[in-house]
Amino acid sequence: MTRATYLRMLAAMIVLTVVISVVMLQFDWNGTAGSTEADEIDTLTDVMIVVSSFVYSIVLVMLGYSIWRFRAKPGDESDGDAVHGNTRLEIAWTLIPTVIVLVAAAYSWVILDRIEAREPDRLNVNVTAQQFAWQFEYPEQGVTSTELHVPVDRQTEFSMQAIDVIHSFWVPEWRVKKDLVPGQTTHVTATPNLEGSFALVCTELCGIGHSTMRAPVVVESQEDFDAWVADQEKDEASEAGGGAVEDPAEEADAGEALFAEQGCSGCHTLSAAGSTADIGPALDEVLPGQSPADIETSIIDPDSELSEGFGQAIMPDNFGDSLDEEQLQSLVDYLVASTEGQGAK
Ligand code: CUA
Fold first, then answer.
1. CA 26 to chain centroid
2. Cα separations in angstroms, 81 against 78, 85, 87, 119
């Protein structure tokens, strides 16, 4: 191969790299970016797209050249030359990809290091996942919620635990993703820089209700966040006030909150709660006529009696452990109250 051919092929590779990169970079691959991590990760993606375009161009140009240069002349039925190898070529095609992979790895490492650096003024949130619900505890504020509220432009560290199976934490706009593994606490940080309402999505197949396992995410100013915390504190104080819950309306509230927090609404239709999921039986249909004791049994030992059309082990069987006596009572009372008077069977 002459020097001129080399240069021409190199020029073709560079032109092709530019053309492919320009086309591929037009796509909005990851959607709206809503955190400082997202900006870094999107830049990394773009760099990888350009590097991949270059590798792809090398392959395409070499392939095109070989097809054209070594094609058989019409009527030539003879065998090709027997070639045992080409040491220089083999060293080149081992070294070049190695260098590309090492550079990409080093760059990714730098970005990961920057993303995982902890800020001293970060907010801490403990995340608990279970089939099929999320719960957020703010240890410094003493607040627990089923909605994730975080202040804008401030790092939040999520310390995460799973009660039953592996789940995965993902807010697409923040890009970062991390699994929650039973028996282990995993951590992920994000610094949201875009205010608004988003969704936390479970991104690890965790059972039949996986696709419904979402939680609202609100990114707001520090003042709005503080106001929300104060609001939550007031609610919790009124719930805790006076020990045993005496007011039936308050008890119904507690049951209604549990119905959402514990993930019941992710699987069951209950018109009183506005839930429409159909992974488990519709409670409006199966509960009327059941005694409170039967309903309690169905919560703590769901496989003891199954509704028609629903199989074993669909519903988690650990509510007897995760709910205390009082919570169980509120939930049963809420279910009885909200299905009372509906068509008895
Ligand atoms: Cu939890 Cu998928």
1. 25
2. 9, 12, 17, 64
Q: Whose CA is nearest to atom 1 of ligand 1?
A: 167
**How close is the Cα of 298 to the center of ligand 1, in Å?**
23
- Tell the residue number behind the tokens 């106001």, with chain if given: 227
Region of 122 (left: φ > 0; alpha: ψ -120 to 50; beta: rest) is beta
Please tell me the distance between residue 206's alpha carbon and the centre of ligand 1 in angstroms.
4
Query: Residue 325: is it exposed, middle or buried by C-beta count within 10 angstroms (0-12/13-18/19+)?
Result: exposed
Q: Measured from the CA of 206, which atom of ligand 1 is nearest?
A: 2
Q: 160 C-alpha vs ligand 1 centroid, how far in Å?
A: 13
Residue 344's pLDDT is 45
Cα atoms found within 13 Å of the Cα of residue 15, Cβ hemisphere only = 7
Instruction: Tally the residues of the chain.
Output: 345
3-state secondary structure of 265: helix
Looking at the CA of residue 203, tell me the nearest atom of ligand 1.
2
308-328 pLDDT, tens per residue? 888 777 787 778 877 888 888
268 lines ligand 1 (CB under 6 A): no
What's residue 167's pLDDT?
97
What is the 38 CA–ligand 1 centroid distance (Å)? 23
- What separation in Å is there between the alpha carbon of 203 and the centre of ligand 1? 6
Picking from 288, 308, 289, 301, the residue whose alpha carbon sits closest to that of residue 328 is 301
Distance CA 165, CA 208 (A): 12
Q: Is 202 in the pocket of ligand 1 (CB under 6 A)?
A: yes
**What is the reported pLDDT for 115?**
92
3-state secondary structure of 119: coil
Summarize the confidence of residues 182-204 as an average pLDDT.
Answer: 95
Backbone angles phi, psi at 210, to 5 degrees: -50, -45
Do 198 and 171 touch, CB atoms closer than 8 A?
yes
Predicted model pTM: 0.71
pLDDT at 318: 79
* Ligand 1 atom nearest residue 213's Cα: 1
The span from the CA of 217 to the CA of 32, in Å, is: 15
Question: Residue 154, exposed/middle/buried by CB under 10 A (0-12, 13-18, 19+)?
Answer: middle
